[in-house]
Fold Nucleotidase.
Amino acid sequence: MNIGIDIDNVIADTYTDLSSFFHNFMGKEHTPFEVVEIMRWRKLLMWRYFARAWRQKVMTTIPLINGAAPVIREWYQKHNISLVTSRTIIFGRQTKKWLKEHDIPYHKLHHAKETTKYTKVKNCQLFIEDNLEEALVLANHCDKVFLFDQPWNRQPVKPNNIIRVSSWQEILKKA
């Protein structure tokens, strides 16, 4: 089986860990939904944010989401695992270091722009994602998409092949 997995807020508890760094950079606190909107639409500002985050190596300190590593390790033995992240390529080395430190195995690692992740996993049977817009695109190209429940993706989900999940244990049961 070809499995695609997003990294941030699916494997890595990125929002919880980096929200204070983001709020400090912005000079005020934002809701999770506002953070996603700012990251999506304020590209120049986000390049400055990413440059600062890269210099301070903040992406190397993020904790794992509970249950992610054992499931991925189990799947790696039997399936083709592609990690597909929207992180900019400047985080490539930090991302690989983080994955190695947490013993997250994978066959391929891709950096992809929003809504293009489907192009990185050919014949995708399963994809795990936290971005609703991305999940909607993936649903047209993958047999099953697990939408990892987050505050910014709580809108109703229409396609039947998008399944909202709240934990890796739930993913394992429904896969």
Strands lie at 2-5, 80-85, 108-111, 126-129, 144-148, 162-165. The mean pLDDT is 93.
